[in-house]
Design goal:
Oligomer: single chain
Radius of gyration: 26 Å
CATH architecture of one domain: Orthogonal Bundle
Number of strands: 0
Largest sheet: none
Structural class: mainly alpha
């Protein structure tokens, strides 16, 4: 009689890899649950909007007011069509990331719509 050969489907390397993967997944899940209460997605945007309302940020052309000219410049910078000067980055950056992006343009447009 011939003995039936059985093949081990899971090798030791595969078991270690799967174990490490599961450990990473469980750790990431646990970290996500632990820090879930620390996330405040609207805190930054609301603070930036308040800065805009006070006129402290969003005035890209530095003419003392936030208007459609600032929105147009922010659009140009966000699309990479023009390069901002350091002064324009400082005055146009509404969210504090030191870049002029569509997010900054959105804040300026929202400010203009609230006037």
């Amino acid at each position: 009689m011939k003995k039936k050969q059985t093949r081990n489907i899971l090798t030791a390397t595969m078991v270690r890899t799967l174990s490490l993967g599961m450990l990473c997944a469980v750790g990431a899940f646990a970290m996500g649950i632990e820090t879930a209460g620390d996330v405040h997605p609207f805190a930054t945007s609301e603070a930036a909007l308040q800065e805009l309302v006070r006129g402290n940020a969003g005035d890209v052309n530095d003419d003392g007011k936030i208007d459609s000219d600032d929105a147009y410049l922010l659009y140009q910078f966000a699309q990479g069509l023009e390069s901002p000067s350091p002064r324009q980055i400082k005055t146009g950056d509404t969210d504090g990331d030191l870049r002029l992006t569509e997010k900054d343009l959105g804040y300026v447009l929202r400010h203009l719509s609230l006037r």
